[in-house]
């Protein structure tokens, strides 16, 4: 009898270990569960020196005393969500490096960069006593001319004219909006950036790019698929770090990702997805 | 003066032609337009011999007198949408061949196949006096180990048991659903599968596949991205054939596509997207 009991106990441990191992990559998510991990996607502008986007908005110095006060205020509000994990837009390949910086920050030997990964992510994680910061970004672009809609359009007068017009409108609209944003405190900026209609509108632009191509060449659709794929891989990385149904995950990401990350997370059925507005507009 | 007049006219013609050429690939769609082309995505099950899907449920013989009566009744309802173009799930590369079959059907020398492209598409287009049918499918799939999630999972015990469990469950769910709808009339079957919660659930299943992969290997995400790419490319083909704001486009497609085609079309802002339920549920 005793030996059977031992055997079972051993069997149980082994099973539980193997389940844990599976979670490490498959993630502990279940679309049929009654209790699901909570997820908030907070869209932000790039507070440092942005250079990766088609339109790079002017930003003022986030290290000024006034902006710093506003950031502290923002972090107070985000704490209300009681995050158990903070996820930031840093390449997953650089996760160890980001963790090293965060470790130094915890011991007071690190000066925050102007980037929102530091200004919001590190600051909030420290306030919450987190030991770990999660980097989930993925952005490899295929070395295939049929994914590069800009180069494709440049060789075709009509498509080139079309794309330039799309960019011109985008730039005009973006600049006007940016002037307005700059005058506001950081929380108010984020409240605007995270409005559903704003998120919807900035996603809609991609569908104009999708139209670039001819015949069997779907350069725009390929590009857009890559963008969808990028956000899917980001979600996969978030799923992989989800290890408990009581996780409360705050994702701090460029606002351009808000639409797809939120949509995929909702459609997956894996999370209880909450709007960041709930916390941004809350009183302190 | 006369010469100048001619010149202007010529210039106008040439501009006009070039605009038309742009439309042929870019489509005439416009996010800002007040009047937008109408679009209905009708999800169907595969009425012929379905064999392309992971799970292939049994379907009743569509050529039986009773089912034929039901198809005619369905076509009557769809006519209420007053489609100007019928779009089908046939490979865009084989459009000429499909058109040839349709031409023969118009002249009474073609026997409809059991496929819904024929049973619904050809039949409805003829009733409406359409001369042309549209094939928009795209499904280039290549045997790339970065995408073939089944092959990948087969080499990894945990992933394999996860995938097998998922497919088993999928099979059970889908077979139960088809058993439920089998006794219904075709219109009622389509009412059932075009419910938003049905198409939502159908799409949700892809997110389980997303989880297959380890480390830098995002095999599941690559596969799901390919699935999104397929549907984005299909929408691109629909945009290309849209040549008037008065267009009323009926898309007859496998119900597995219904969620994404609807979602993309709505988010693009290019169409006035209507639910097929509106027409399926109307009286004769």
Give an overview in words:
The complex is a heterodimer of chains A (about 280) and B (about 280). In chain A, strands 3-2-4-1-5 form a five-stranded parallel β-sheet, with helices on both faces. Chain A has helices at about 1-25, 65-80, 95-105, 115-125, 150-155, 155-180, 185-195, 195-210, 220-240, 260-270, 275-280; strands at about 40-45, 85-90, 135, 250-255, 270-275. By secondary structure, chain A is of the alpha/beta class. Chain B is of the alpha/beta class and about 280 residues long. The longest helix of chain B has 25 residues, at about 1-25. Chain B is globular, with a radius of gyration of 22 Å.
Characteristic key phrases:
heterodimer; A: 284 residues; alpha/beta; five-stranded parallel β-sheet; 55% helix; disordered N terminus; B: 284 residues
Quick overview:
Chain A has 284 residues and is of the alpha/beta class.
Order of helices and strands of chain A: HEHEHHEHHHHHEHEH
Question: Which strand order spans the largest sheet of chain A, edge to edge or round the barrel?
Answer: 3-2-4-1-5
Strand order of the largest sheet of chain B: 3-2-4-1-5
Q: How much helix is in the residues of chain B?
A: 40-55%
Q: Work out the oligomeric state of the chains in this entry.
A: heterodimer
Query: Mind summarizing the main beta sheet of chain B?
Result: 5 strands, parallel
Number of strands of chain A: 5
User: Uncertain runs of chain B with pLDDT below 50, 5 residues or more?
Assistant: 1-23
Mean pLDDT across all residues of chain B, rounded? 88
How many β-strand runs of chain B?
5
The largest sheet of chain A, given as strand count, sense and whether it forms a barrel, is:
5 strands, parallel
In percent terms, what proportion of residues of chain A is strand?
5-15%
Any low-confidence stretches of chain A, pLDDT <50, length ≥5?
1-22
Overall spatial form of chain B? globular
Helix-strand string of chain B? HEHEHHEHHHHHHEHEH
């Amino acid at each position: 009898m005793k030996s059977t009991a031992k055997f079972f106990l051993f069997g149980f441990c082994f099973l539980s270990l193997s389940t844990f191992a599976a979670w490490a990559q498959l993630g502990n998510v279940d679309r049929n569960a009654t209790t699901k991990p909570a997820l908030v996607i907070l869209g932000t502008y790039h507070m440092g020196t942005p250079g990766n986007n088609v339109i790079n908005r002017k930003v003022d110095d986030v290290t000024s005393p006034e902006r710093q006060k506003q950031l502290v205020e923002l972090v107070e509000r985000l704490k209300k969500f009681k995050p158990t994990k903070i996820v930031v837009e840093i390449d997953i390949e650089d996760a160890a490096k980001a963790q090293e910086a965060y470790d130094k920050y915890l011991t007071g030997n690190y000066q925050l960069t102007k980037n929102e990964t530091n200004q919001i992510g590190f600051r909030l994680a420290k306030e919450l006593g987190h030991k770990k910061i999660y980097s989930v970004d993925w952005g490899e672009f295929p070395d295939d001319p049929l994914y590069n809609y800009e180069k494709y359009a440049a060789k075709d007068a009509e498509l080139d004219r079309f794309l330039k017009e799309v960019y011109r409108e985008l730039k005009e609209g973006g600049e006007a909006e940016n002037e307005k944003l700059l005058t506001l405190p950081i929380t108010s900026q984020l409240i605007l950036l995270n409005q559903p209609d704003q998120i919807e509108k900035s996603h809609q632009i991609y569908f104009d790019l999708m139209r670039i191509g001819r015949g069997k060449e779907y350069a725009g659709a390929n590009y857009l698929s890559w963008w969808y794929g990028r956000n899917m891989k980001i979600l996969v990385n978030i799923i992989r770090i989800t290890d408990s149904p009581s996780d409360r995950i705050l994702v701090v990401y460029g606002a351009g990702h808000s639409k797809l990350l939120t949509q995929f997370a909702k459609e997956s059925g894996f999370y209880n997805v909450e709007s960041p507005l709930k916390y941004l507009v809350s009183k302190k | 003066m006369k010469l100048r007049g001619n010149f202007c006219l010529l210039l106008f013609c040439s501009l006009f032609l070039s605009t038309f050429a742009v439309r042929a690939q870019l489509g005439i769609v416009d996010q800002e337009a007040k009047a937008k082309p109408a679009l209905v995505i009708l999800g169907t099950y595969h009425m012929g011999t379905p064999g392309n899907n992971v799970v292939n449920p049994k379907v009743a013989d569509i050529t039986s007198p009773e089912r034929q009566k039901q198809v005619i009744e369905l076509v009557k309802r769809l006519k209420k949408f007053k489609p100007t173009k019928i779009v089908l799930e046939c490979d865009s590369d084989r459009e000429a061949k499909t058109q040839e079959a349709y031409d023969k059907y118009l002249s009474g020398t073609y026997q409809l196949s059991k496929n819904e492209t024929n049973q619904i598409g050809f039949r409805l287009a003829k009733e409406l006096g359409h001369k042309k049918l549209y094939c928009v499918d795209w499904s280039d799939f290549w045997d790339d180990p970065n995408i073939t999630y089944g092959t990948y999972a087969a080499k990894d015990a945990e992933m394999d048991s996860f995938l097998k469990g998922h497919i088993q469950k999928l099979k059970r769910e889908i077979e139960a659903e088809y058993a439920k709808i089998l006794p219904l009339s075709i219109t009622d079957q389509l009412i059932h599968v075009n419910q938003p919660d049905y198409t939502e659930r159908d799409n949700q299943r892809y997110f389980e596949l997303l989880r297959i992969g380890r480390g830098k290997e995002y095999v599941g995400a690559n596969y799901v991205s390919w699935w999104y790419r397929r549907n984005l490319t299909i929408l691109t083909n629909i945009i290309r054939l849209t040549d008037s704001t008065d267009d009323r486009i009926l898309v007859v497609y496998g119900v597995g596509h219904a969620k994404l085609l609807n979602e993309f079309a709505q988010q693009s802002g290019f169409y006035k997207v209507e639910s097929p339920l509106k027409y399926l549920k109307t009286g004769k």
